Structures are given as C-alpha cells and as structure tokens.
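Notes continue from the previous slide.

Worked example: a multi-chain complex. Inputs as given:
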Amino acid sequence: MIRHRLFPLSDLLGLGLIHAVAIFSLVLLVAPSIIVVIISFDTRAYVSFPPEGFTFRWYAEVFDKGELVEAMLNSLQVGLTVTLLCIVLGVPTALACVRGRFRGTTALSVFVLVPHMVPGIVLGVAVLFAGSLVGVVPSIWLQSIAITVFILAVMVRTVQSRLMRLDPALEEAAANLRATPFQSLRTVTLPLLMPAILAGAVFTFVEGFDNLSVAIFTHGFRDRPLPVELLALVQYTSSPLVAAVSGVQIVLAIAALVAVSMSIGLDNVNE
Amino acid sequence: MAKASFPKLAARPGVGERLIDALLSGRGIWPAVPAIVVLTVVAVIPFIVLLSLGFSDFVVSRGEIVSQTFSLDHLSNALSDSLYWTTFQRSLTLALSTTALCLIFGYPVAYLFLVGGRWTKRLILVLTIAPLLTSGIVRTYAWLVILGGRGVVNSTLAGMGLIDQPMRIMNTHWAVLIGMVQIHLPVMILPLIAVMSRHDGRLVEASENLGATRLGTLRTVILPLSVPGIGTGAALVFTLSYTTFVVPQILGGGNYLNAATMIYEQVVYSLEWSKGSVSSLILMLTCLVMLVAIALVTNHFTRWTRGSDA
C-alpha cells in the first residue's frame, strides 16, 4: 500500500521532466518512419516536406526497376538461408548448452557468442580475406554463411532461455513412458520450443535480409542484396523512390513484429 | 531421480536407434558439433588470417599468398599515421557521446515502463522493438528527409519565419550524432526494461512508505538497482555505434570518416589488405578495451547492491 500524500513541488517538476523526455524519446523512435511513409506518396520528384500530392507512382517504380526487385529477391534468399542455417545449427547447439552433461557447456555458450560480439564489419573483412585466400570469391552463399555465423548467437540464446525455463519433469515423464530420447525430443521438447524457434527465426531472417556490415564485404558482385543496393540509391538519388522501398520494408517489419508478439510475446524479446 | 524409480520394461533398441538417440538426446556435445565446425571455419580461422595479415609482409598474386614474412611495419605505420589517430578519436568521441545521449533519452522511457500501466508498457515495447526489425538504412534515410535542405526541420523553421536560408545540417557532425542516437536508442532501452521489470515492486512501495519522494525513490532505489541494465545497454550501444558504417556514410555525406568507413575504403576501394587488416584489428582491440572499461565501471557500482539481489 502506498500512502497517498502530497509530494513536494520539486518532485512533481522532476517527474514532469522525466515523463516529458520519455514521451519525446518515444515520438523520436517512431516519427522518422512515419515521415518516410508520408514522403513515399509525394508526387514531386525530389524529397521535400510536407508533401504536395498523393500518388502510388514510386511504389510502381520500385517494382518496375529490375535491379531493385532482384536485390529484394537476393535479400529474401539470404534471409531464408540464414534462418534455415540458424535453426539447423542453433537449436541443437542450444540443446547441448542446456541439457549437455559434458564439461565446457559454459565455454560452448561463450564460443557461440563471440562472433556476435565482434563488430560485423571486422567479421566481414576477415571472411572476405580468408575466403579469397582459399579461392572462395564473394557470393550470395558466402554472404549467407557469414551472416549466419554473425547472428547464430541470437537463435541459440532465444532457444536456450526458453529451454532453461522448461519443466524437466515433462521430459522425464516422456522417458518414463518409455519414449526414446529422440521420441521425447520430437514429441515433447521441440513442440514446446517452437515459439522460441519462431521468434529466433524472425530475428535471424531480419538480420539476413537487412544486414549491411557483413554483407558489404561478402556479397556477390552480380547478386547485390537490398541493403547494398539501397545504400547506393540513397547516396546517389534524391527521389522518393527510396522512401517507397522503405515503405515496403516497414510493412515487412510490422509483419515481423506481429509474428514475434504472437510467438513468444513482446515481453520475452529481452530474455 | 524419478527416472530411476520406474523399471524399463522395453527390450534395448538396436544399435542404429541407439546411435541416433545418443546423438540426439542432447546429453553430449554432439548436437553442437556442426555449429562448432561452421563457427571455426567461418569465424575463428578468418580471424587468425586477419591477424596474420596485419602482422606480416605478404605478396598476393592471383588470390594466393606467394610469400609471407612476419613484420610489425603495418602496425607501426598505422600508429604513426595521424589519419588513424584522428579517425579513431572521432569514432570514439562519436560512440561515447551516442552512448551518453542514448542513456539520457532512454532511461526516462524505461522509468515510464516501470511505473506505467499495462497499455503504457505494451506501447513502449512495440515502439522499441519495431525499429529493431526495420532496416538501418531505412531509419537513416528518414533523417535525410528530416534534416535535408528541404526537409522537415528546414521547412518548419522557414514556415515560422525563423530562417530565410535553409540551415545546413546534413553532412555535419550533428546530423551523424542525431541519427546515431535515434538509431541506437532501442538497444539502450531494452536492457534497461529487462533489468527494471525484474525489480521487486515492494522495494519502491517500501521506499515511498518510508517517506521518500518519488524522485528520491528513483535516485536511491530504482537507479542503483538498474545499474546492470545501464552497463549492458551502454556496452551494446557503444559497440554498435563505434563500429557503425551506415549512419556516417549516409548522414555524413561520404566525407565523414570514422573507423568503419575508413576500413571500407581501404578494403573495397584501395584494396589495401594489410591496412584494412590492421585497422580492423585496432577497431576490435579498442572496442574490447572500452567494453572491459564499461564492465569494470558497472561492477564497481553494482557491488553494494549485489547482496540484496541474492
């Protein structure tokens, strides 16, 4: 029970300031994206605010431009490859980290985390150099595997934290009911881990789709991913075309947000 | 153990099945082996290569090193080059000011999350997580729209009659700083929220029942308890903003050289492998030193609250 009483004026002022800053920050988080979406419908051929008219022209142009569509498809492929690799490599690793009965489970967790802690740009340079020494030229596959290594930790951590909160009695019950370890994994553990795997998949897909720091050094010369294409576009054009591409990406982000909130719930993103 | 109290009635499965079970049961290291192999090949070995390139003279012909000898020349060249010093200094200043500003703007949001109702909490989570799922380039481009010559800021000020000529904000240090703070803000807020939502709410009640003002409670109870969150957030924001590439490249207009853009130019444009390796190594090392410093400071300030955590 909090006693109700009058707080001194300084208290109210201080709290008022804190709330004002908080609301300012929250507006700051979302306002730029809203402005971009507004700009993307402007009729003028240069970026200016406020807009003068309403048109879908820029969106039509995005899908008319062959290299942008191709870049989107490339990034889609990278995103899906990264997600798939992260699930295949990450989920078993999380199982080994949590359920493992060998010495060095902690060391394993740390080892998985290290490439994620290294700046993406350094990992990109390292992979580029090492690859070219053994004759592996930058390509969409090199990019995918490099981003996978960079982001694998996120999948492992997400699944790991869910796994640690699972009741071990469920697996013991499965074992008591004479399920083999494989059967209990398939019918008990994996279904329970599904929300975490899904959330991890969303984050790894977004990274694969959007990553620039690793991709810029490892992407194929001919199959440029969307962030690389977009960076060039931002630097050399001033039409709302980029805003339209951004509009498309913001819609994708909202879809990802809904997916996360439906899988593990937004409260658990941090865990 | 519950498992031991029930006798196993089944006949032992065959060798093949036992092998699959042994591999999949998750008790051994086996499930992690593919990941370990991939991480070794795609991360560990490349880092060793990077290290060896930074510390040697080598001749490359047709993508193969034909000769390689140990040398500290590249490192000493870099350390005596004033360009390196100014660039890394600029990156460091930028990253530290970004971290500080993110804390100043992020902490009140986390406080609002702590004291807010269910819908406030939900709104804050949506607004913080959504940007993380949006491309960094898109979010940086937004600032191009806002700060540009005909952007939101300039047309608003001109509309109010405050300026005749558009202000030049783009391609300045300030544009880069503003973009950096806004883009890394969610990364600061999320760890703060995570730590704060683990607080025992009764501590705040007790503090207020003992007569503390709400500001007093914030200063003496909430703030000390949230130090680990501040540490995590600061470490993440520092790493990201120290090594970022997108914001300086776009908002700095291509002539704002920070460590990351310098490495990019060395590697992609001038194809100077040894310089690129040395710069990458310096970047990684300085980043590590700063992270250790942040961890030490965080530890220093958490020491006296740790007893109450346990």
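Summary box: The two ends of chain B are 28 Å apart (CA to CA). The first strand of chain B starts at residue 56 and ends at 61.
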